[in-house]
Every structure is written in structure tokens, then in C-alpha cells.
Specification:
CATH superfamily of the largest domain: C2 domain
Largest sheet: 10 strands, mixed
Number of domains: 2
Distance between the termini: 71 Å
Strand content: 15-25%
Number of helices: 6
CATH topology of the largest domain: Immunoglobulin-like
Order of helices and strands: HHHEEEEEEEHEEEHEHE
Helix content: 25-40%
Shape: elongated
Radius of gyration: 27 Å
Structural class: alpha+beta
């Protein structure tokens, strides 16, 4: 048991060193933060050497190894004594922290109250033939509701981002996740694919271009990532695309069978959440290689903290999708004046027409004076 505990301890130390090394190599840290991070790295290395029973390396105030040929014996002794004392204090702090956490029955990760989910959008493959909008958000299937704002990716008909300068740099961070969000029984990453073009795929009429039409859904269960059971930011996850309905078949208010969701029936007038839940419940998906690739990583801290601690991942160009509502801890200066309106479904009188007519909905906000 002691060997296993020590192995896991050293493993965590190694992960921290790899993380910090990436930050140093990113070249994005200011000079003062870089110097501070180097001190943390050397302190972590010295601490790891001690618990492994290896030799102690003496360093100067900047973390550089002292040269015995240029440093006096007395100076080396004092530096060795100071370093040894500092490491002993660190070991005692670690033991005290571990004991307190064991008494509470909480893992170390839970000492943080706010978390962020980093999403790196790698690629999207789908035979649409027109431009598309991809709306990515976090979804609780048990409560049938979204818990975050959308991250929007505009995808061109040529299979590339509409904003070509964002090629290989489509990243977002879902912020303000609380400790209660991390213990949700299930949580999914949902991507809604909206086709932007003609009313029908085969419609060549120019006056119908630029219309937004729901096309499909891609869903990934990210519960293990949110719970901290999976932590590999380099791994690319494939999320299969599921076309929710053949648009040419939606003509009458009747239930239709989606060709890509075996034994799952989708109705024309079904609420959107019902569609998502049926897609989530689908065991097998005939995706034919269509879908999107993403990499994910759960980061401890709010937006400001992850920008500081994970600057090699989250920078000023990273899109931010905030949690619906307010974070668990509201900081001074954090102003939120948002109202969210989602058009779930609607019923309209088609009048004397035999087929349903298209409807455009316009919404606006007015004060008491209109």
C-alpha cells in the first residue's frame, strides 16, 4: 500500500512538472510569472527527490544549481541546510493536508470551488454541402436542460472554418462550474448542427438561401472527464453525428423514423430536449464516419485562474461559454445581466393551406414605456 501511495504521489508530481513545462515552453508568460513558475518547478523537483530518497541538489535564490567550484564550502553548507529545512516543512504541510482531507473524506481536487472545462475543437466531417453552425454546450440528461451557454463554430461548405484564421485554433472554455456540477450523475457535451442555406438541400432557388435549418446532433457523455476519472488533454474524442430527421419527409404532423437512429422515433413537433434525450439513449449510431473530433480537459479555477495557471491552453483568443445563471461564488465586479430565451416549439394555424407554412419569429425587449 505504501508503495502504491508513493507511486501515485510521484505520478501527480510528474503531471504537475509536465504541465508547468508546457507553460514555460509556451512563451506566453510575463517575466515575473516565469521566474515564479521556475521556482515552483525546482521546489517540486527537490521535494520529489526527497521522498524518493535521492540526493538533494542545492540551488541559489533563482533556482539555479550552485557550482561547487565557484561556491565556498560554508555557502554550500548553508544553502543545503536551508533547502533541507524548506523541504521538511513542505513534507509536513503535505501530511497535514492529507490527514485533514482523509477526515473530511474529500479528494484534493475538491478543495477548489470553481472549475472550467477546456474544449479544443479539432475537426468536423459531415456531408452537408452547405455552410453550417455548430453550437456546443453542456447538457444534463437527467434534468433535460442545458447548464451552459453555447460555443459557436461557423463551418464552411468546403470543410473548413468560416474564419480561416481560426484553423487549428478553435478553443473554448466552459467556466463557472461548481463542485455540485462535478457530482451530477450524468453530463453530456451536446453539439447542435444547423444547416445555413436553402430551404431544402436540393433547392436551387436563390431567394431561399441563408436560411437556418436544424440538421443534426452530436452527443458525447463526458461524465468521467467531469468526475476527474479521465484526464488526457492530448486524446482526441470522436463524437458521431446523428441526423435527427430527413427534412424532405417532414411534411405532415406524423411520427417519422430517423434513418440514423435505430428504433428511435422522432416527431416533427417534438420538443428539442426530447430529441436530445433520444439521441443520448441511442446505443448504436450509423455515423458512416461523420462527426466531430475534440479534446477535453477539466481545469481547477475560474476564468482568471485558468488563464494564469494554464496559459498554454487558455489565452485571450479562447472563447468563453459561461454557466447558465450565476457561479457558486460571485466575485466583486462580476456583472451578469442576461436573459435567456429558447424557442422550444410552436403551433400555428396553417389557414386554408394544405401544407404547413413557414414562420419567422422576431423577439425584442421593451421597457414600461414601450
Amino acid at each position: 500500500d505504501n508503495k502504491t501511495t508513493q507511486f501515485r504521489h510521484v505520478q501527480q508530481l510528474t503531471y504537475s512538472l509536465i504541465e508547468w513545462r508546457s507553460q514555460i515552453l509556451s512563451g506566453t508568460l510575463p517575466k515575473d510569472e516565469l521566474a515564479e513558475l521556475k521556482k515552483k518547478v525546482t521546489a517540486k523537483i527537490d521535494y520529489g527527490n526527497r521522498i524518493l530518497g535521492l540526493d538533494l541538489v542545492v540551488r541559489d535564490d533563482n533556482g539555479n544549481i550552485l557550482d561547487p567550484d565557484e561556491t565556498s564550502t560554508i555557502s554550500l553548507f548553508k544553502a543545503h541546510e536551508t533547502a533541507s529545512k524548506r523541504i521538511d516543512e513542505r513534507i509536513q504541510e503535505e501530511k497535514s493536508l492529507q490527514q485533514n482531507l482523509e477526515l473530511r473524506g474529500q479528494p484534493i481536487f475538491n478543495t477548489t470551488h470553481t472549475y472550467s472545462l477546456y474544449v479544443n475543437f479539432k475537426n468536423f466531417v459531415c456531408n452537408i454541402g452547405e455552410d453550417a453552425e455548430l453550437l456546443m454546450s453542456l447538457y444534463d440528461p437527467d434534468l433535460s436542460k442545458f447548464i451552459s451557454e453555447n460555443y459557436l463554430v461557423r463551418w464552411g461548405s468546403n470543410g473548413m472554418p468560416k474564419e480561416i484564421e481560426k484553423l487549428n485554433n478553435l478553443q473554448a472554455v466552459f467556466t463557472d462550474l461548481s463542485s455540485s456540477d462535478l457530482i451530477r450523475p450524468k453530463i453530456s457535451l451536446v453539439c447542435q448542427i444547423v444547416r445555413v442555406g436553402h430551404m431544402e438541400l436540393k433547392d436551387g432557388k436563390k431567394h431561399t438561401c441563408g436560411l437556418r435549418r436544424p440538421f443534426g446532433v452530436a452527443v458525447m457523455d463526458i461524465t468521467d472527464i467531469i468526475h476527474g476519472k479521465v484526464d488526457d488533454e492530448e486524446k482526441q474524442h470522436f463524437i458521431p453525428f446523428q441526423q435527427i430527421a430527413m427534412e424532405t419527409y417532414i411534411r405532415q404532423r406524423q411520427l417519422i423514423m430517423s434513418p440514423l437512429i435505430t428504433s428511435h422515433v422522432i416527431g416533427e413537433n417534438e420538443p428539442l430536449t426530447s430529441v436530445f434525450n433520444k439521441v443520448i439513449a441511442a446505443k448504436e449510431v450509423n455515423h458512416k464516419g461523420q462527426g466531430l473530433w475534440v479534446s477535453l480537459k477539466l481545469l481547477p479555477g475560474d476564468l482568471a485562474q485558468v488563464q494564469k495557471d494554464f496559459s498554454h491552453l487558455v489565452d485571450r483568443s479562447t472563447a468563453v461559454a459561461r454557466k447558465m445563471g450565476f457561479p457558486e461564488i460571485i466575485l466583486p465586479g462580476d456583472v451578469r445581466n442576461d436573459i435567456y430565451v429558447t424557442l422550444v416549439q410552436g403551433e400555428f394555424d396553417k389557414g386554408k393551406k394544405k401544407t404547413p407554412k413557414n414562420v419567422e419569429v422576431t423577439m425584442s425587449v421593451h421597457d414600461e414605456d414601450g
